[in-house]
Amino acid sequence: MNSKNKFYFIKGNNVYLRPFKLKDISKKYLNWLNNPEINYGIEARFPVSEIEAKNFFKETQGLKSKILFAICDNKSNKHIGNCLISNIDWINRRCRYGRLIGETNKRKKGIGTEVTKLIQEIVFNKLNLNTMFTGSNETNIASIKSNLNAGMKKEGVSREAIYINGKYYNQINFAITKKDFLKKRK
């Protein structure tokens, strides 16, 4: 392993997930969050300042309901995106997840699917949760395909749940249970 990459939480074929660090909040990172061509698929599309991003990071530290990861390229160790496990409900054993591949040259190459599978490993094998869910804008075909490729099941549609540029879009809802996750691994 490269000396720069001494620690990762979980590693896949192309990327690894490591804890998100305060130093990850860079101009490049802020561009991902604030660029409508990059962030159109995520729910939180408000402009984000450096101070707000740092405050969000600090707020997630020590919370038992959110876990924030940096997505890094295995070859270059470059930070290429983020993923978040959130809304962790320890009583009902469920959570929500989201991901953002910020580096546009890494999109549509299966990275989102790989990240989703890594998140599933964490959610079901490390956190011992039972259900993981997410939602995708109906126009975000790459996200929809990625979720399906990672074994997520379409569970329904939230009508006109996403507002972008003066228009409402449907949200496609996906989930996977631990039982389904274990079946697909066989």
What is the fold's blueprint, element by element?
Layout: E1 10-11, E2 15-19, H1 27-34, H2 36-39, H3 50-60, E3 67-73, E4 79-89, E5 94-101, H4 111-126, E6 131-137, H5 141-149, E7 153-164, E8 167-177, H6 178-185
Parallel strand pairs: 5-6
Antiparallel strand pairs: 1-2, 2-3, 3-4, 4-5, 6-8, 7-8
Tell me what you see in this structure.
30% of the residues lie in helices and 34% in strands. Strands 1-2-3-4-5-6-8-7 form an eight-stranded mixed sheet. It starts with 9 loop residues before the first strand and ends with a helix. It contains six helices and eight strands. It has helices at residues 27-34, 36-39, 50-60, 111-126, 141-149, 178-185; strands at residues 10-11, 15-19, 67-73, 79-89, 94-101, 131-137, 153-164, 167-177. It has one domain: Aminopeptidase (3-Layer(aba) Sandwich). The mean pLDDT is 90. It has 186 residues and is of the alpha+beta class.
What is the structure about, briefly put?
The protein has 6 helices and 8 strands. By secondary structure, it is an alpha+beta fold.
The CATH superfamily is identified as: Gcn5-related N-acetyltransferase (GNAT)
Order of helices and strands: EEHHHEEEHEHEEH
Helix tally equals: 6
CATH architectural category:
3-Layer(aba) Sandwich
CATH class: Alpha Beta
How much of the residues is beta strand, in percent? 25-35%
Which percent range fits the helix content? 25-40%
Give a count of the beta strands, DSSP E runs of length 2 or more: 8
Main structural class: alpha+beta
Major sheet: arrangement of strands: 1-2-3-4-5-6-8-7
End-to-end C-alpha gap: 29 Å
How many domains is the backbone divided into? Answer: 1
| Overall mean pLDDT | 90
Shape: globular
Which regions are unreliable across 5 or more consecutive residues at pLDDT < 50? none
Fill in the CATH topology. Aminopeptidase
Main beta-sheet strand count, sense and barrel state: 8 strands, mixed
